[in-house]
Design brief:
alpha/beta; 7 helices; Rossmann fold; 2 domains; globular
Length: about 240
């Protein structure tokens, strides 16, 4: 691939592409992207809007490619949360802070936890450019940082989960069951690991599965996303 020729053609023909970034990965593993990015054209990030918020998205940051369905899915999650402005919320596996910052407009405080350092830097930047001050971001493994957060902050009224396809670590689910938030909202891209994790969350009979709403973000494929709403049983 003649990258210089491609970039030259983009410039010459004024093709409306914001950025071209080359990712170099020399490791023979199942990890697709490395941390080495070379900016070939444009700026090092692209921008998108969700509702009234602007997000800077960097090459190694996760972002849903179907933005229309993404907004519908996030709106459903916010509807399930039904925040009144007084709540403490944990957003686990928060990525660049998309859901976190949407939640921040409706709650007292929200904490986002994510293991990818570049994503957390993006999340902090996104909070700043949107003038949001009640969203706090933590970089680290969710299974470790959620325990630290519980010890240092107010107990969460609502916990939002949006893990990768492998689902949640069992330690995360155990901590959630110990904390006992009023509501759990689980956004999943894998029905199999969702079913496994829901079995764990429902095993104590302290939560009721209220609703599961599926979303088709990848037409003509077998993949499906969903938003699940669990509510603590009132004794």
């Amino acid at each position: 691939l003649n990258i210089d020729f491609m970039v030259t053609e983009f410039k010459k023909n004024k093709i409306p592409v914001k950025s071209i970034v080359q990712n170099v990965n020399t490791k023979k593993t199942n990890v697709i992207l490395s941390d080495k990015n070379i900016l070939l054209y444009g700026r090092e990030y692209i921008q998108d809007m969700i509702e009234n918020l602007t997000f800077n998205i960097y090459p190694n940051s996760f972002y849903q490619v179907n933005s229309i369905q993404m907004e519908k899915m996030y709106k459903r999650a916010l509807d399930y949360a039904n925040l009144q402005g007084t709540e403490t919320v944990y957003d686990l596996y928060c990525g660049i802070g998309t859901i976190t910052l949407l939640l921040s407009q409706k709650c007292k405080t929200v904490y986002g936890i994510e293991v990818v350092a570049q994503a957390i830097e993006s999340a902090k930047q996104n909070a700043k450019i949107n003038n949001i001050e009640n969203a706090k971001f933590i970089c680290g493994k969710v299974e470790d940082e959620i325990e630290n957060l519980v010890a240092k902050s107010n107990m969460p009224n609502v916990i939002v989960l949006d893990p990768a396809r492998k689902g949640c670590e069992e330690k995360v689910l155990d901590t959630i069951l110990n904390v006992k938030p009023e509501k759990i909202i689980y956004i999943s891209c894998n029905p199999s690991t969702l079913a496994r994790d829901l079995k764990k969350l429902l095993s104590t009979q302290e939560y009721e599965l209220k609703e599961v709403t599926p979303y088709d973000l990848f037409s003509h494929t077998m993949h499906i996303e969903s938003v699940t709403f669990l509510k603590r049983v009132e004794l």
